[in-house]
Amino acid sequence: MGEENHIEKAEENHTGNANGEVVSESGEKYYSLEEIKLHNTSKDAWLIIHDKVYDITSFMEEHPGGEEVLLEQAGADATESFEDVGHSTDAREMLEQYLIGELHMDDRRKESKKDVFITTSGGEGSAWTTWLIPTLAAAVVGLMYRYYTL
Ligand code: HEM
């Protein structure tokens, strides 16, 4: 019984990876940039591509583009280099078998913080000014009109 459960879980993980979106239902892992940086040798190499972390140690010698380019990027974010080469769909599918987790939220460069900033400061500020300035202008014009017509 225990064994059956184990097999089912393994298959579930595999499907999740093939979708390319969900890492894993049960074993989601987040790694800090500091930890990833430590894996930068040919015997222990990790890469970050699109905020996901890959242990490519066993792939180094197989890489059609050579071991050296991977070693240069090991322990770092290789998203740009990976995309610059224009890797095929096959290459992208290969990535999934080396996936070990995701980059920690704190180490990501995301737009979520910017969104919050724009909503809070932008909304309040502009509503206040657009309302106040025309009101003051109207009051001044009204006073001047009254002054000159008396
Ligand atoms: C684990 C990550 C990677 C995988 C699975 C991977 C896989 C592949 C594959 C399958 C190819 C053959 C061509 C293709 O199908 O697109 C290839 C070629 C190549 N890759 Fe990667 N690659 C990875 C990371 C990188 C990185 C980070 C770089 C750059 C620093 C790189 C540079 C290259 C180059 C220069 C070629 C040769 C392109 C050519 O000769 O046309 N690869 N890679």
Automatic annotation (TrEMBL):
It is found in: Membrane. It comes from the Eukaryota. Residues 1-23 are annotated as: Disordered. It holds the Pfam family Cyt-b5. GO terms for cellular component: membrane. Keywords: Electron transport, Heme, Iron, Membrane, Metal-binding, Transmembrane, Transmembrane helix, Transport. Residues 1-14 have a biased composition (Basic and acidic residues). InterPro entries: Cyt_B5-like_heme/steroid-bd, Cyt_B5-like_heme/steroid_sf, Cyt_B5_heme-BS, Cytochrome_b5. The chain crosses the membrane at residues 128-148. Residues 28-104 form the Cytochrome b5 heme-binding domain. GO terms for molecular function: heme binding; metal ion binding. PROSITE patterns: CYTOCHROME_B5_1 (PS00191), CYTOCHROME_B5_2 (PS50255). Belongs to the cytochrome b5 family. This is Cytochrome b5 heme-binding domain-containing protein. The lineage of its organism: Eukaryota, Metazoa, Chordata, Craniata, Vertebrata.
